[in-house]
Amino acid sequence: MAQEQWTAVDRYITDLLVPPDPALDAALTDSAAAELPAINVTPNLGKLLHLLARVQGARNILEVGTLGGYSTIWLARALPPGGRLVTLEVDPKHTEVARKNIARAGLSDVVELRLGRALDTLPKLAAEGRGPFDLIFIDADKENNVAYVEWAIKLGRPGSVIVVDNIARMGRVLDPAPDDHQARAIRDMFDMMGENPHLDAAAIQTVGAKDWDGFAVALVK
Q: Could you give the CA distance from residue 181 to residue 172 in angstroms, rounded to a whole number?
């Protein structure tokens, strides 16, 4: 009953606040047709990311984990004229789908999609002098979240916003099993965030169409 209610409330909010959008809807449809994992952000979180980027006045955005480009489109649409978004994806198939979805949304000139391991690409961005990024969205392999947040600090500036998705893991983050590497990595990330003098962070649990999860938001000091 709880899951049915969570999903129904999600649908109610989405129907009222996130109207149908051809490019976004097609991105989800094509991602499903290509059999990409159904781990894209929800429409509600996509719009929240869009609003956060606008509130932040972000001109440069970094995304770690592109998947099919659904969240990429939400974020890129928040940019002002001349703004840029760099998104990192390790899987060639995901990259191919994302490029098509981004192009259909008319954002190919705004979005730079880089294929490769993020932990290889992030140092290259630093060496190229890219950034500082005003907003960094992290939604990739959870085992490397600590490293991703550390790179977000390096590639950000005082006032940059870092958003990390999937932080509750159905509550397993509270007491991860020894072989639950993702939940243990999230705990390590929270420990790092709490101790890092360069961050001021909070996190929100969520329930909805994608069960019990949440996201963290940090401000670079």
A: 11
DSSP assignments along 77-142, one per residue = TTPPTT-EEEEEE--HHHHHHHHHHHHHTT-TTTEEEEES-HHHHHHHHHHTT----SEEEE-S-G
CA dihedral 177, 178, 183, 189 (to 10 degrees): 140
Select from 98, 65, 59 the least CA-distant residue to 81: 59
Helices (H) and strands (E) in the chain, counts: 8, 7
pTM over 0.90: yes
**What is the amino acid identity at position 26?**
A
Which structure tokens are listed for 44? 């509600």
pLDDT digits (tens, 9 = 90+) for 47-70: 999 999 999 999 999 999 999 999
* Cα(23)–Cα(13) distance, integer angstroms: 20
